[in-house]
Structures are given as C-alpha cells and as structure tokens.
Design brief:
Blueprint lengths: L5 E5 L3 H13 L3 E5 L2 H10 L4 E5 L1 E2 L2 E2 H11 L5 E5 L4 H10 L3 E4 L4 H15 L1 H4 L14 H14 L5 E4 L6 H10 L8 E5 L8 H6 E2 L11 E2 L1 H4 L4 E5 L6 H13 L1 E2 L8 E2 L3 E6 L3 H6 L5 H7 L2 E4 L9 H17 L5 E2 L1 H9 L5 H15 L4 E2 L1 H4 L6 H4 L21 H19 L4 H8 L3 H10 L14
Parallel strand pairs: 1-2, 1-3, 3-6, 6-7, 8-15, 8-16, 9-12, 12-15, 17-18
Antiparallel strand pairs: 4-5, 10-11, 13-14
Helix pairs in contact: 2-3, 7-8, 14-16, 19-20, 20-21
The structure holds adenosine-5'-triphosphate.
The site of adenosine-5'-triphosphate (ATP) has 16 residues, from helix 8 and helix 16.
GO molecular function: ATP binding; sequence-specific DNA binding
InterPro entries: AAA+_ATPase, AAA_lid_NorR, CheY-like_superfamily, Homeodomain-like_sf, HTH_Fis, P-loop_NTPase, Sig_transdc_resp-reg_receiver, Sigma_54_int
Protein name: Two-component response regulator PilR
Length: 468
C-alpha cells in the first residue's frame, strides 16, 4: 500500500477547512486540520507534512508567525498562505518571510490544485536533485558566489517573483535559469524574453498571443509568451525597457494570473513564475517616472544582486583557466598557461563587461599567444577607470537587496543589515576609500567611521583617506 502525502490545513473557519480538505482528498492527499497557530505547532511536532496551507488571521496569531516557525523548525515543508482578496501587501510579506506561494480568497480551486501540485513536486527527487554543488554554468568558489548559490537554492523552492540585479555580463540569465532548473518547475519551459528587443507595436501580441485575423498580418492564431511558459518560468530580461503602456498590461496579468490574447473575448488562466532582470537601476527608473511603482513592487518581491567579477577575488583566475580549458578543447589545441604577470593583470583589471568580457579577452589572447604561455600583452586589457567600470551598477542610494534569511529577524537587525549592505556597496564602489564612500552616502567621515565600528567593519585606522 502506498501512503498518501499529508497536508496541514490551518484555518479558523470550519467551512474553509472543509473545502480545502475535500479538494486535497480528491487529489489523494490526506489532511490534518488545525484552527489556530498553537494547534498547528502541536501537529507539526507529531507529523512530517508534505505541505501546509494556512489562513492569515488566526485566533492566536498570524499566518506569518506560522510561516516563520515552519521555516525555522520544519524547512522541508513548503507553506502557502491564504490571503484576503486584493491584499497584495500581505502576500508579499508572506513571500518575503519564506512562504512558497499564496492563494487569495475566495479560493479558486484550479489555482489551489496547481499550487498543491507544485508544492508536492518539491518533495520529489526531481524537485531537489538538480541543485548540484558544482554546476558548470555558475562557476566560482569565492564567498559571494557561494552565498549566491545558497540564495538560488532557497529561491528555487519558492514561487515568489525574483528581481535579479547586476552589471552587464555578470550572469543574470545564468542565475535565472538555475532558479528555474533547481526548482519544482524544472521539467516545464523556461522562456527568456529580451524586453528591449521586441518592437512596441508587436509587444502585446508577443506576450499574450493573438487570434487569427485580429489585425493585419495575423494570419494564424498565435500563442503568446505567457502561455508558452505555462507551469514554467518567464524571464523578463532588460525589464526596464518595457514601455509604460505594456507595464500596465503586464501588471494586470501578473495580478489576475490570466491572459487575454489580442482579438479574444475570454481570459485564459496561466500559471507562470516571473523572474526579471536589468543592468539598470530599477528603483531609479521608478523615481524618474519611467517604470511603474506598482509593477516594480510586484516583480521585486525578492531581490538578488549578482556581484561584479572584480568582487570575486581568485574566481577570476579560476574562471579564466576553466574558460581557457574549454576553448582549447573546442579548438583542439593544447591549453596554454597564464604567466604570473598575466594573472596579476587579470586580477587588477576591473572588467566592466564582467564574465562575458573575460570570455572575450581569453578568446582573443588564445589567438594572439604563441601556443604555450599567455602574457599580459596578449590580453590587450584597456585602461578603464573604476568609475567607468561601475557605470552600469545601481546608484548607492538604491534600495538594498533584501536578504531573505534576515526576514525573520527583528526590525533592528533588519535595519542594521540594510545599513551594512549600503555601506559595503559604497565602499566597494569607491575601492574602500572611506572619504569618498562617506561623500557618496551623504555623511561625514567621522560618522562613517562610527558606523563601521558599530558594524565590526573598522580596520582601526584613523586617517581620512583623502589625506593618504
Ligand atoms: N559564474 C559563471 N560561470 C561560468 N560562466 C558564466 C558565469 N557567469 C556568467 N557566465 C557566462 O557569461 C556570459 C554572460 O552571462 P549572462 O548572459 O547570464 O549575463 P547577463 O548578466 O545576463 O548579461 P546582460 O546584462 O548582458 O544580459 C554567458 O556566456 C554565461 O554563460
């Protein structure tokens, strides 16, 4: 006899408990029912659940409390929250706290079933085994890359929209693919779309599809990108380039989870996870009125920042040697080595084009070198000032990346982590010139020193860097 998966349903309204139980039973899932946070805690001690569905307002606490409790003590159990109709704020808070997904009331049974199926996927080998330590698509052993891999692993288990920021060529698309491939949607399509590359008059039909004859040139029914990505992931690359009119339509689709192809009268339900990226500073685009605040809020539930290549220490050499190995194998030649001076040159060059530029540099060097050794002159690295290198990065006063693991901490901890990430960013952008960093942050040198001390980042030196 095979055992059915077991779900925990937490709601203080008997009718809703019953509706959810019947729906899940029909999917061959057994249920335990709880009316309160404390009853849920007791059941969680006794059983191992494949899934938890919880209401937000419970007599002795909130659904968020339960999400945090499960994240901490039973991280293998995906938890989804049931939110009041239209209360997106609550859903966003729940996703940030680690909820895997949400359904809004009145519960639409089709959505509920999809959500439950995705949750159960997480427990299967297919939903877990994809995340290998050394995925050749995201090479690197530096601390920021190890941290990034850990974040990707966590995000892969969630359905939350993720906004990926980072300079050009840092690997934003690579990261989007990994979030998809390491999660329960892996077997479904991953559809990348470059929002800047679609002519604006074709955009609606590209995203939502069209009916034959709905406009000149529409000679056949066409499926849009949303439907193509059904049950999978849509990756909106260069999302800042979407025209404002399209932003409104996209927001509606994300909120309603339905599309209406051009020329169609009916809405078609779609289940798509949205990932987005741009090398621009999206918060600044919002401030300038070029990107809608409400859409920003919806796609930026969780933000991941990809470090620039120059922030990854020895990874530069590791990546360089790996790429040289791949290229040499492709070209059927012996792999040349980098001499010490060439390694030094690579390490001190700021790589404004990041990993893509490193790949191009090595390809060129391989053509220019004598076959055995790559010397600095074969790399042909340009003189680049650091300001140029950082030109593509968000301005220092943008909203810092949210660390999903810090979401459960106190407000004080959260504010400290925001402060720390902004200070580190300013320091990084000024190559640890504290005077310049203080100026960027709009504070005095003394005040920055005080904060560095408080955050344990002070190196003890007292000199104003402008004097040195
Ligand atoms: N850590 C890494 N290990 C191996 N290859 C990488 C890594 N990061 C990026 N790459 C490679 O670098 C190239 C650029 O990556 P990708 O296209 O994901 O960058 P991007 O940030 O999306 O760039 P853009 O801003 O131009 O869209 C790709 O060929 C990708 O495979």
């Amino acid at each position: 006899m095979t055992m059915n998966p077991l779900a925990l349903i937490v709601d203080d309204e008997p009718d809703i408990r019953e509706l959810l139980e019947i729906t899940l039973n029909r999917m061959q899932i057994d249920c335990c029912l709880a009316e309160s946070v404390s009853q849920a805690h007791a059941l969680l001690e006794k059983h191992r659940f494949a899934l938890c569905l919880t209401d937000m307002n419970l007599p002795d606490g909130s659904g968020i409390d339960l999400v945090q409790h499960i994240q901490k003590h039973h991280p293998q159990t995906p938890v989804a929250v049931i939110t009041a109709y239209g209360s997106m704020e609550t859903a966003v808070i729940a996703l940030k706290a680690g909820a895997f997904d949400f359904v809004s009331k009145p519960v639409e049974l089709g959505h509920l079933r999809e959500l439950v199926r995705s949750a159960l996927q997480l427990a299967t080998p297919a939903g877990q085994a994809n995340a290998t330590e050394e995925d050749a698509r995201l090479l690197g052993q530096s601390a920021p890359i190890r941290e990034l891999k850990e974040t990707i692993r966590k995000l892969a288990r969630s359905q939350a929209p993720v906004y990926i920021s980072g300079e050009s060529g840092t690997g934003k698309e690579v990261v989007a693919r990994l979030i998809h491939d390491w999660g329960p949607r892996a077997a479904k399509p991953f559809i990348p779309v470059n929002c800047g590359a679609i002519p604006s008059e074709l955009m609606e039909s590209e995203f939502f599809g069209h009916k034959k004859g709905s406009f000149t040139g529409a000679t056949e029914d066409k499926q849009g990108l949303f439907q193509a990505a059904h049950e999978g992931t849509l990756f909106l690359d260069e999302v800042a380039d979407l025209p404002l009119a399209m932003q409104v339509k996209l927001l509606r689709t994300i909120q309603e989870k339905t599309v209406r192809p051009v020329g169609h009268s009916k809405e078609i339900p779609v289940n798509v996870r949205i990932l987005s990226a741009t090398h621009k500073d999206l918060a600044a685009e919002v401030a300038a009125g070029r990107f809608r605040q409400d859409l920003f809020y919806r796609i930026n539930v969780i933000q991941v920042r990809i470090p620039a290549l120059r922030e990854r220490g020895n990874d530069i050499i590791y990546l360089a040697e790996t790429f040289l190995g791949r290229l040499s194998a492709d070209w059927g030649i012996r792999q040349p080595s980098l001499n010490a001076a060439a390694k030094e040159a690579l390490k001190s060059y700021p790589f404004p084009g990041n990993v893509r530029e490193l790949q191009n540099t090595l390809e060129r060097a391989l053509t220019l070198c004598d076959g055995n050794t790559i010397l600095p002159e074969h790399l042909q690295l340009q003189e680049v000032s650091h300001d140029d290198a950082a030109a593509g990065t968000p301005t220092p006063l943008s909203v810092p990346a949210l660390d999903p693991s810090a979401a459960g901490n106190s407000l004080e901890d959260y504010l400290m982590s925001v402060e720390k990430s902004m200070i580190l960013k300013a320091l990084d952008e000024t190559r640890w010139n504290r005077t310049a960093a203080a100026r960027k942050l709009g504070m005095t040198f003394r005040s920055l020193r005080y904060r560095l001390k408080k955050l344990g980042l002070d190196d003890g030196s007292d000199t104003d860097d402008s004097e040195s």
